[in-house]
Amino acid sequence: MTTAKDIMHTGATWIPAHETLDRAAQLMRDHNVGALPISENGEQDRMVGILTDRDIVVACVAMGRDPSKTTAGDLAQGTPRWIDAEAEVEAVLEEMQTHRIRRLPVVENKMLVGMISEADLAQHLSDDQIAGWAEKVYSRN
């Protein structure tokens, strides 16, 4: 049985909701990631969203907003999705497909332990599994 913990990459980093988007971009660069879970108040706190590099570009820069004044919390929307570290890979795929998301935080004992991205799926799943996932996540329906 393959679990979320088996396919995730470790070292996921939080960004507090009060931090600015320019700081978020620096963290993404420093950690070589494209997404950061947003915490309500700080490290290992309640997750209020996920910030992606695309969010910074589309919802801030392209809208003429200043990334040094816009916070991660300003862009946190909806209900954040996550998966338990012991969840089977089928549950991971279902969560990502159902909510059409490409990055999924992995939690163990209420603590962030990693993140699952498209690259992680590509490294650990069969071509058929990847094709099915991509069809559901990227379809316009």
TrEMBL record:
CBS domain segment(s): 8-68, 75-132
InterPro entries assigned to the protein according to its UniProt record, in alphabetical order: CBS_dom, Diverse_CBS-Domain
Name of a matching Pfam family: CBS
Domain of life: Bacteria
Keyword check for Transmembrane: no
Keywords: CBS domain
Coiled-coil region(s): none
Protein name stated in the entry: CBS domain-containing protein
Species name: Streptomyces poriferorum
